[in-house]
Amino acid sequence: MAKKKSREIEEETKKGAQNDVSITNGDSESHEKQSKKKKKHREKERERKNDTLSLQNEMPTVSIAVPGSIIDNTQSFELATRLAGQIARAATIFRIDEVVVFDNKSTSEDDSTDVVENDTDEGETGAAFLIRILSYLETPQYLRKGLFPKHNSLRFVGLLPPLDAPHHLRKHEWASYREGITLKNQDQGSIGTLVDVGLSKNVMIDQVIQPGRRVTVAMGTNRNLDAGAPRKIVPSSRPREDGMYWGYKVRYASNISSVFKNCPYKEGYDYRMGTSEHGLVIKSSELNLPSFRHLLIAFGGLAGLEECIEEDNDFKGKNVREAFDLYLNTCPHQGSRTIRTEEAIFISLQYFLEPINRVSSKYEH
């Protein structure tokens, strides 16, 4: 009996040990996933900080903030895609540096890009949809396949007119900079990384970077892709410092106050303007903007910016005019009772073009 009992105890001990191993393996897998997620987040933060530092000495920037709710009011995927395409075209035509897509979540503090990455084909929010289309259209065509996996939201993008931005270069065109995607190197001991920059051959850069990353490559003057020193990667803001327009960044904000609080520029937006039919009426030629480093122009949704401010806990008890340095009506005497947000963006950016250029010209001289 004692031997039998001893064997039973032994078997129980073995089972317990096996269970411990499986639990440990589960914990290990979970820890590994968390580590990868943290590493990815750290890399994104490092990129953002590098871009921020590079922006310190460059020309003034202009950002626009748009509510994701405008997508929720469309009747079909095709119409939603066309709306997003109009916003992307407006941002490119008027050389906008940053497009902020905000929700009306009054309490959320989560402004991570997971709003796009974690949304499924079936349950995508208006904000996530808009961010995905804007990001896709801003990306040069030759990089899209490598950077954007197939997604239901992208099924109508082929109907949209191209942005034809300066960084959307053709295969035969040479430029000082090109956007590229890092590739998996065949040689494990390589001291550089191959990058697809949309030319007939890939180029080598002087850093080892994991595959699948978008980078800006300084191409130099040597057009021989088979020889010469490796190319260098530079901050994505560098072409702009050289006077080129190089597309827009896309950012998510959980509410209107997060648009301001989580500004990627170190000193924040130093001048903030809101647009509304209830705003002040000033002629574009008579609007004198102060010198600014980072200008923000905000647009409302169906119920305007007034509703966005009312629903935000950070602006409790405050008037919409208190949230902005200037609150303007850029299209007085409108014939239609309503101006859609995508229309308001075109109208307003044309209205602001001359006042903004007057400020920018001060930095050029």
UniProtKB/TrEMBL annotation:
<protein>
    <recommendedName>
        <fullName>RNA methyltransferase</fullName>
    </recommendedName>
</protein>
<dbReference type="Pfam" id="PF02598">
    <property type="entry name" value="Methyltrn_RNA_3"/>
</dbReference>
<feature type="compositionally biased region" description="Basic residues">
    <location>
        <begin position="34"/>
        <end position="43"/>
    </location>
</feature>
<dbReference type="InterPro" id="IPR029026">
    <property type="entry name" value="tRNA_m1G_MTases_N"/>
</dbReference>
<comment type="similarity">
    <text>Belongs to the class IV-like SAM-binding methyltransferase superfamily.</text>
</comment>
<dbReference type="InterPro" id="IPR012340">
    <property type="entry name" value="NA-bd_OB-fold"/>
</dbReference>
<feature type="region of interest" description="Disordered">
    <location>
        <begin position="1"/>
        <end position="58"/>
    </location>
</feature>
<dbReference type="InterPro" id="IPR029028">
    <property type="entry name" value="Alpha/beta_knot_MTases"/>
</dbReference>
<dbReference type="InterPro" id="IPR003750">
    <property type="entry name" value="Put_MeTrfase-C9orf114-like"/>
</dbReference>
